[in-house]
Specification:
alpha+beta, six-stranded mixed beta sheet, three-stranded antiparallel beta sheet, 10 helices, 9 strands, 27% strand, elongated
Length: 362
């Protein structure tokens, strides 16, 4: 008992460090355990953590006004509730950070990823912890939005404004139920407005705004691979990718330095992860860096995809008409959100000798 009392005092004296430790533990735990977005364990894990965080925030709100009392048998464990909350928040935000990062190029998701990073840091700031429950409600609302915006497309089998609108609607319904339950026992309107309503409403507005601006990555889709090639063939279920890239250019995928002879088509190959039973369409946008006009769209080619847990969907498009210079190919959803991009240079090849190609299999 004496050692337990010493540990409890030590915990109180160093609670901030314990919180950071549990938060990092949540990250580490998830990095080891997380697999795919529709994996049953991951989904159940997220639901459990959301219930735990919501339950603690609900009880803490009522405790501030002495509307409930923690049973004596639970009081010792209750002192460590914030450690559990920080572990759960660390895990959830890590899950969403990983999937959002996978599902978009860094440029298009940069603002959203910065926002999550700021929230992660602010959540561990000792000064922020003293100003009330609203930071926790803010992060909780973000986690609810992220969870439903990922899971609804998985259930429906496609992405777009309909799954997103449904995810926002369900999140709002959950929050309204939560707030209504608290409001029945707490009559302090200032507390309800400042600590709960304004943070949750602010996140909802911000989340919708980011979607309209194209800053919400298109989870659950992600580009596992993209490359530029001279020729693509399919043989025995495998794609044969022909390229001239020197082996030492390990940072390139195929012919990102494309030596073009007259009549050479340019092939774009991609491997897209999508959950099982997922069926949708993506678009391949070819963009040329015009010396006078800058980056100028040339073509937009649709590509049907179907889900697959292990290998994902493999497909390609090609282009016959192009100009020498800098190019990029953007892989996009039907609602214009970017999944990934690849840059390459087209250089005229005036030689007439026989060419040799290396072949990669995908």
């Amino acid at each position: 008992m004496k050692r337990l009392a010493q540990f409890q005092q030590y915990y109180k004296d160093h609670e901030n460090y314990f919180s950071i430790g549990f938060f990092i533990s949540g990250f580490a735990f998830d990095l080891i355990m997380i697999q795919e977005i529709d994996e049953l364990f991951s989904v159940v894990q997220q639901i459990f953590y959301l219930f735990v965080i919501g339950g603690v925030l609900y009880c803490d709100s009522l405790l501030l006004f002495e509307k409930i009392k923690i049973p004596s048998w639970l009081q010792k464990a209750w002192e460590y509730r914030m450690a559990l909350v920080h572990f759960a928040l660390g895990t959830l935000l890590n899950i969403y950070s990983i999937f959002y990062f996978k599902s978009s190029s860094l440029l298009s998701s940069f603002v959203f990823m910065i926002l999550i990073s700021v929230i992660l840091i602010a959540n561990e700031n000792h000064s922020v912890k003293k100003i009330g429950l609203w930071p926790k409600f803010l992060i909780y609302t973000l986690c609810l939005n992220a969870f439903f915006s990922m899971m609804i497309p998985v259930v429906l089998g496609f992405i777009g404004w309909i799954p997103f609108a449904l995810a926002v609607f369900i999140t709002t319904a959950v929050l309204l139920f939560f707030i209504t339950r608290i409001k029945k026992q707490i009559s302090d309107k200032t507390f309800l407005r400042k600590q709960i309503l304004l943070p949750t409403l602010g996140v909802e507005v911000l989340f919708i705004s980011f979607y309209l601006l194209g800053w919400i990555p298109p989870v659950p889709l992600s580009a596992k691979f993209m490359g530029i090639y001279h020729k693509i063939e399919k043989e025995n279920g495998q794609y044969l990718l022909y390229h001239q890239r020197p082996r030492w250019k390990i940072w390139q995928n195929g012919d990102q330095t494309f030596l073009a002879r007259s009549g050479d088509p340019i092939y774009f190959f991609t491997n897209i992860y999508s959950p099982a039973r997922f069926s949708d369409e993506v678009r391949v946008r070819w963009i040329y860096d015009d010396p006078k006009l800058g980056w100028t769209p040339w073509d937009l080619i649709p590509m049907k995809i179907s889900g697959g847990r292990e290998e994902g969907f493999r497909g390609f498009t090609y282009k016959n008409k192009y100009a020498p210079g800098k190019w990029r190919v953007q892989l996009e959803t039907t609602d214009g959100r970017e999944i990934g991009r690849i840059y390459f240079d087209v250089i005229p090849d005036t030689s007439t000798g026989e060419r040799s190609f290396l072949i990669d299999e995908k």
